[in-house]
């Protein structure tokens, strides 16, 4: 049977997961009503369409299994008993307030880890809106994909992608390695290991320098897991984001990070909390995939660490601080920069991931307080069964000891933001979502009549 070894970072995500800390990505996609000529389409038809398209994505047929070599490793292999109906489900909601109901249900579904003996993903059709609109929730284990790869996999359900799908190439089998390599291979292995050791030392030094050895996270963003999740969403005008960028320089991502920083400041004030003694630090994942290339299997990530200037009262100064921090990160690069922690996984033996996961799982709080990530979507209009995609809210997993993760996706002239929080630690997540909109208004005041 063809198989493919899990890359080191994928293996790390696989072993870092626990029942209380699931490590799956999510996306909540909202679709408008089907066009008039498809008004007779019933939910069972739509469910069948979802199941058929998901089953046609080869990656979604792969499960994780242990391997003998390398010791401690694991591999993806096709599930011989694959049944797409174990993964694709329908839930009908009351429909009185469909958006609120989908967010509540999505939070409950995101609490549950995906089954590890099966291909690690789930998909839910959420129906019941009075106007015929509907939503789809997708869950993919982080070992299966990073953000870009998740988009490439999940996009297979859309009409436009499914129509143009090419037959997938068969996975290349992993060639077993001999325990007794020849002299030439021994020399090559020695050179490789020396190079790996040098890179590991360099990356490890960057991670140590970035660590907050006092271990003091921002209190409002730290929490032991309650096993519950809460989800809130917000949509910001992409044109307004770009208008701010054009006026100040930098990137749209700099503007969005500044919006998050200001929203956190506003949220602290509304909670009656004092500002933290030090600015909270965000991990901003960075893809190592080359622009313009198709996403390969597995995760290919590094990350930048950015202090979000919530203690700065002036919005313009907050933006300048974020721009300066991101410029420093980009100048240092992902190997030597402060957020090189993801690269460290590439230098570790599979046994280190398998047995070191319990120790490493609590290390996030030494490096950052929250995750803020951006997931790119196709720029063209997308639909499902003719129903137009109105919004897609990405959802990131929570790190152990943290209570909040922020994910953003630009689509259709909006930046759709998905907030995932520990349900007990952040019961007022909707207030933070509202603060995002208010903060954009502060940076770019809306036109007054």
UniProtKB/TrEMBL annotation:
The keyword Lipid metabolism applies. GO terms for molecular function: diacylglycerol O-acyltransferase activity. InterPro entries: Acyl_transf_WS/DGAT, O-acyltransferase_WSD1-like, O-acyltransferase_WSD1_C, O-acyltransferase_WSD1_N. Pathway: Lipid metabolism; Glycerolipid metabolism; triacylglycerol biosynthesis. Keywords: Acyltransferase, Glycerol metabolism, Lipid biosynthesis, Lipid metabolism, Transferase. It catalyses: an acyl-CoA + a 1,2-diacyl-sn-glycerol = a triacyl-sn-glycerol + CoA. Its EC number is 2.3.1.20. The keyword Transferase applies. Residues 298-443 form the O-acyltransferase WSD1 C-terminal domain. Belongs to the long-chain O-acyltransferase family. NCBIfam families: acyl_WS_DGAT. This is Diacylglycerol O-acyltransferase. It comes from Streptomyces venezuelae (strain ATCC 10712 / CBS 650.69 / DSM 40230 / JCM 4526 / NBRC 13096 / PD 04745).
């Amino acid at each position: 049977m063809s198989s493919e070894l899990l890359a080191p970072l994928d293996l790390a995500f696989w072993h870092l997961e626990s029942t209380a800390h699931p490590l799956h990505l999510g996306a909540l996609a909202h679709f408008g009503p089907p066009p008039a000529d498809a008004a007779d389409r019933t939910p069972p038809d739509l469910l069948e369409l979802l199941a058929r398209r998901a089953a046609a994505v080869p990656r979604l047929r792969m499960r994780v299994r242990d391997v003998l070599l390398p010791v401690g490793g694991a591999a993806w292999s096709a599930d011989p008993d694959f049944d797409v109906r174990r993964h694709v489900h329908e839930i009908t909601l009351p429909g009185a307030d469909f958006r609120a109901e989908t967010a509540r249900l999505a939070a409950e579904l995101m609490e549950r880890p995906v089954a590890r003996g099966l291909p690690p993903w789930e998909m839910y059709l959420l129906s019941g809106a009075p106007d015929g609109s509907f939503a789809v929730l997708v869950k993919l284990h982080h070992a299966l994909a990073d953000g870009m790869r998740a988009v490439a996999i999940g996009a297979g359900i859309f009409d436009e992608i499914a129509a143009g799908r090419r037959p997938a190439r068969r996975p290349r089998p992993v060639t077993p390695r001999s325990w007794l390599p020849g002299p030439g291979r021994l020399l090559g292995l020695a050179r490789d290991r020396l190079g790996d050791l040098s890179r590991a030392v360099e990356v490890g030094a960057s991670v140590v320098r970035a660590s907050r050895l006092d271990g003091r996270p921002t209190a409002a963003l730290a929490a032991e897991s309650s096993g519950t999740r809460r989800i809130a969403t917000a949509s910001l005008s992409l044109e307004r984001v770009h208008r701010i960028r054009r006026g100040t320089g930098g990137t749209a991502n700099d503007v969005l990070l500044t919006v998050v920083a200001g929203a956190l400041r506003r949220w602290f004030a509304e909670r009656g909390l004092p500002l933290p003694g030090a600015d909270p630090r965000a991990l901003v994942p960075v893809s190592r995939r080359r622009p313009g290339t198709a996403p390969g299997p597995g995760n290919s990530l590094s990350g930048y660490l950015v202090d979000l200037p919530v203690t700065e009262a002036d919005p313009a100064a907050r933006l300048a601080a974020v721009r300066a921090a991101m410029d420093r990160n980009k100048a240092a690069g992902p190997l030597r920069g402060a957020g090189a922690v993801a690269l460290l996984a590439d230098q570790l033996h599979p046994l280190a991931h398998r047995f070191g996961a319990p120790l490493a799982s609590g290390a996030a709080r030494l490096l950052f307080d929250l995750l803020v990530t951006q997931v790119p979507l196709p720029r063209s209009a997308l639909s499902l069964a003719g129903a137009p995609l109105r919004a897609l809210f990405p959802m990131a997993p929570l790190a152990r000891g943290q209570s909040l993760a922020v994910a953003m996706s630009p689509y259709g002239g909006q930046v759709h933001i998905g907030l995932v929080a520990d349900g007990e630690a952040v019961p007022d997540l909707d207030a933070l979502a509202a603060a995002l909109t208010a903060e954009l208004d502060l940076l770019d005041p809306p036109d007054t009549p």
